[in-house]
Amino acid sequence: VPSGGLALLLGALLWRALDGAPLAELSGDQDFQLFLHKSLEFTRKIKGDVAVLQQAVCDTFQLCKEEELLLVRQDLGITQTPLEQCHSRTFQADACFSQIRAGLRAYHGSLTAVLELLPGQAGLVETLQLDTANLSSNIQQQDWGSLPAFSSHFHHQVGGFFILANFQRFLETAYRALRHLAHL
C-alpha cells in the first residue's frame, strides 16, 4: 500500500474505532487489529525520523543533553503534550486516541520551528510533517493551532531541541498505548 493509501486506511480504521463499535467489541475485530498493526508501524517510522532530527540538532548546535537546557526550557514555556490517558494505570482508549490526535496536531505545527532551524533537513522535516498531518487529519480535520515564537536564535535552537525531545517521548507513549490495545 503506498504511504498515502496507508494513511487513508489508518484514518478510516481509526475513525471506525473511535465512532463505531465500543472498543471492547473491536479488540478481536480483524479491521481494528489491522489498524493497530499499521499504526504501530507508522509510529515506529515517525519515531525514527524524529531521532534523526534530534541527532541533527545535536550535531549542528551541540544541543544534546536535556538536563543542561532545563532553565531555558522553562523560559520558553515548551511543555510535554499530555498523554496521561494512554498510561496503563489510567488507560482509557477513547481518551487516549483523543490525546494522540491533539498531540499530533501540536507537533505538526511545532515542526515548522525545526524546519526553520535545520534547512538542510527540509526534506525529512517536511516528510515528518506530512506523516504527522496525514495520520491526524485522517482521524479528524481540525486547525493545527499556534506556532511557537522565539525571542532569540539560541532560544529557537533550544526550542527545536525540546520540540523533538517531547515529540519522541510522545511517540513512545503513543506506541506503548497502541501495543497495549493490540494485546487486548
Structure overview:
This protein is an all-alpha fold and 184 residues long. The chain has one domain (30-182): Growth Hormone, Chain: A, CATH 1.20.1250.10. 72% of the residues lie in helices and 0% in strands. It contains 7 helices and no strands. The radius of gyration is 17 Å and the shape is globular. The two termini are 26 Å apart.
Give the ordered list of helices and strands: HHHHHHH
Q: How many individual β-strands?
A: 0
State the end-to-end distance.
26 Å
Shape: globular
Query: Helix count?
Result: 7
What is the domain tally?
1
Main sheet overview: none
Radius of gyration: 17 Å
CATH C-level label: Mainly Alpha
Mean pLDDT: 75
Structural class: mainly alpha
Low-confidence stretches: 1-27, 141-147
The CATH topology name reads Growth Hormone, Chain: A
Percentage of residues in helical conformation: over 70%
What is this entry, summarized?
The chain is built from seven helices and no strands.
